Amino acid sequence: MQFFFLRHGETLWNLEKRCQGKTDIALSEKGVEEAENFAKKSLHLPIGHIFTSPLKRARTTAEILKKNHPMAGFTVLKEFEERGYGYLEGNPSAMMYAFEKEEKRNPSKPIDPSVESLEAINFRLQKGLETAFANDFSPFIVSHGRLFVSLCEYLEVPHESQIKNLSLYEFTKTSKKWEIRQILFH
């Protein structure tokens, strides 16, 4: 089993270091330009079907990619949305990181009901992956940074706590475990 994961292009809230969550933020001009450059460099990738979050920043990135891979299928999946951060959205990302650190340190502590639980994320990630693999043997997912972290934790692979915009990763299942590698473009 294999799939690819691409984080969306840059938004203004990325630049301002604000927590986006499910707030539907568009790509910045630079984000669009970088996504276009990435798409041009991606022609060698085996993209058969693109699955994307419905949020503008991911969907626009995926649509730009699709233009350079016109034969690829294209599906929007709500399961690949970013984690809902409720009251933290729009605030400095440092607040979100502090929240996540406390959540990991004390997992039994109830979280604010406006914030999506890790269990809910894992459930929808599992459903999203099942849908993607039912439609393509090597799906290409365009989604979000915090969802990437949840995905890595769900699949039990080592990961960075924050990935850059337009970072591309390949996930491969060998025997009983998943492995991950970043794909760099020069």
Task: Give a quick set of tags describing it.
186 residues, alpha/beta, Rossmann fold, globular
Description:
By secondary structure, this protein is α/β, with parallel strands linked by helices. The protein has one domain: 3-Layer(aba) Sandwich (Rossmann fold), CATH 3.40.50.1240. It has helices spanning 12-15, 29-41, 56-68, 93-105, 118-135, 145-155; strands at 2-7, 49-52, 73-76, 140-143, 168-174, 177-183. Strands 3-2-4-1-5-6 form a 6-stranded mixed beta sheet. The chain is globular, with a radius of gyration of 16 Å. The model has no long low-confidence stretch (mean pLDDT 95).
Major sheet: order of its strands?
Answer: 3-2-4-1-5-6
Overall number of domains = 1
Query: What is the CATH topology classification name?
Result: Rossmann fold
Identify the CATH architecture: 3-Layer(aba) Sandwich
- Backbone shape: globular
CATH C-level class = Alpha Beta
Distance between the termini: 26 Å
How are helices and strands ordered from N to C? EHHEHEHHEHEE
Compute the number of helices. Answer: 6
**Biggest sheet: strands, sense, closure?**
6 strands, mixed
| β-sheet strand percentage | 15-25%
The chain-level structural class is alpha/beta
Mean pLDDT: 95
The strand count comes to 6
Q: Could you name the ranges where pLDDT drops below 50 across 5 or more consecutive residues?
A: none
Helix percent reads: 25-40%
Oligomer: single chain
Return Rg in Å: 16 Å
Q: Let me know the CATH homologous superfamily.
A: Phosphoglycerate mutase-like
